[in-house]
Amino acid sequence: MGVLLACAAYAVYAAFICRLFFHILLWVRASEQAFTRPAYAVRIRPNTVAVTALDLLFLRRLFSQNKLLWIGSWTFHLSFLLVFLGHMRYFLNPVPACITCLQPFGLVAGYLLPLSLILLLILRTSSGKNRYVSVYNYFLLGTALVISLSGLGLRVFIHPDLAEIKAYILALFTFRPEALPQSIVFVAHFSLVLFLLPFLPLHMVAAPLVTLDARRREDELRTVMHER
Amino acid sequence: MKDKDTFTGCLSRRQLLEIDACTQCGECLKFCPVQEVTGNPLISPPEKIRLFREFIRATEGLGARLLGGREIDRKLLEDFSHAVFECTTCGACSRHCTVGISTQRLWPMLRKEMVRRGLGPLGPQAGMPGAIRETGNPYSKPSAERFAPWFPEGVVVSEKAEIAYYAGCTGAYEAQPMVRGDVSVLSAAGEPFTMLPPEEEVCCGFPLFITGQHDLLEDLTKRLVSAYQERGVKTLVCSCPCCVNIMSRDWPIFFGKDLPFRIRHITQYAAEALRSGRLRIAGELRERLIYHDPCYLSRGVGVIDEPREVLRAIPGAELIEFDRHGLASRCCGAGGAARKVFHDNAIATGRLAIDEAVAKSADRLILSCPACYAKVNEALQGHDKQVRITDIMELLAGLVERR
């Protein structure tokens, strides 16, 4: 069973990397069509990069549109990041001090993550925009919620053998798959992560670049009919 | 063309990233004018992006690469194409996008892809290239009627001058009080200006660009730019936001290099002429004016302050604003070459602008776009709320000192 799950993990990671690779290839090979390019190239200024960094860090564009959605979304992204970093202790040996320092925050984030997902689901289904929400969107939110709840359950109620889990993960990542840990909930949690991975939205990669371009366009707008 | 052929041929790298960057948050929905009047989810910006993503995935995703591309359901493609062409391309979704996708530039490229697949353009849009080839304008009107019906008496047009005026097809044929006002204001400013003869002043290419029919664009651009260049033009003035948009953003690309002259909207010219004293307002107007920002002028090229500067210069006039104005302005419904195909949407959207102007007790609704002018005037007919509609230069022309 351990080898089977390990094989599934390798297949999923390979599929994820291939998907990303082919998609990046699609971006790279896309032609810069003449009529879609700005007539006058506006260089990206350091200030534009700084403002974009703040946009991304605090999801400022979303904040200006919908405060409640911002609370859900920002909490989700921040707590996801902290939980992800917290999980690094299972992948790294020895555990770096910075990861150890983050553990208390990761613990709080473990509670906030499912709460933020519940808020996002409520907002999606109750805002009158539910007609516009795709099945894929519900699937992403729903699966992420089950993963976060099972993770929280492992941390708070089940208390599996962490040493055993770490040994399994490290063995997996060094291509020496071992027997599965005893905890069924952990197996379910890990399997769901594998299941979700190929479906992760590409906006994680594309959105920061587009947000930077949006700031560049705002700079450019002032020049189109005024400075030249 | 097979429906499993690539969907990315018309998109730039930036636009492919934009397709992937949409988080489907739906925040743009409350600002989409077509959503406001139809409520059809398929026409919503996130749904269009989601579907296009699906098309790309089916034809060029990992599965398609390993197992071969899937044929896309023809009906789905037709519905998608219809949705893309029903959009007014106003760009309000872009302004409110939580990621910052430039939809005002993205939608025309999706339309181009649909045209490439034989799924667009729709209705009268399909006749535009032929009409432009034959008559120089998308309305199939004779060039002899381009200027004659509205050109004010006594206005002198120079053979050569540093300033040129481009009337534009919609202004010349469908919003004549507007272009009459433009020419009157230019004349009142006292600077010599030139115009191309009616048979030479052909379409700027915007209707073709916006409907994804790009074949004639390079030829039209080169003809117009060369003609103005021969007249020694340094500044090309135009009142149509769609024209100034394609002139400033796309003409340099179709021309192959920087334009030999700069592009200015008529309100920019008028504001500068008022500042410098070349243009003086003689009368006064004790009215509440509400100004509607055309999408392609505000979000398109950033001309927002100058129209207001002109209106504030009118003694006695009180300028009030729509709730959504400037970069956030609401479409009047006439944009994206959709007004002739989706007439009901355009009328319903135009009436929203009229209703707000009336609710804010405006005496006049001031416009500065010929498409807005034509369609909002049409929307006014038979509507239970009434407001006087005037073009900004039509208004100014009636108030300035004549030379």
Secondary-structure arrangement, i.e. CATH architecture of chain A: Up-down Bundle
Molecular shape of chain A: globular
CATH class of chain A equals Mainly Alpha
How many DSSP E strands of chain B? Answer: 8
Largest interface: A-B, 53 and 57 residues
Number of domains of chain A: 1
What is the total number of structural domains of chain B?
3
**Low-confidence runs of chain B (pLDDT<50, min 5 residues)?**
none
Assembly status:
heterodimer
Order of helices and strands of chain B: HHHHHHHHEHHEHHEHHEHEHHEHEHEH
Task: Tell me the β content of chain B.
Answer: 5-15%
Radius of gyration of chain B: 22 Å
Q: In percent, how helical is the residue content of chain A?
A: over 70%
How large, in whole angstroms, is the Cα Rg of chain A?
21 Å
What does this structure look like?
The complex is a heterodimer of chains A (228) and B (403). The termini of chain A are far apart. Chain A has a single domain, classed as Fumarate Reductase Cytochrome B subunit (Up-down Bundle). With 228 residues, chain A is mainly α. In chain A, 76% of the residues lie in helices and 0% in strands. Chain A has helices at 2-29, 46-58, 60-65, 67-91, 97-126, 135-158, 162-173, 184-196, 203-224. Chain B is 46% helix and 7% strand. Chain B has three domains: 13-120, Fumarate Reductase Iron-sulfur Protein, Chain B, domain 2, CATH 1.10.1060; 124-271, no CATH class; 282-397, Rossmann fold, CATH 3.40.50. The mean pLDDT of chain B is 95. Chain B is α/β, with parallel strands linked by helices and 403 residues long. Chain B has 20 helices and eight strands. Chains A and B meet through helix 1, helix 3 and helix 9 of A and helix 1, helix 3, helix 13, helix 14 and strand 4 of B.
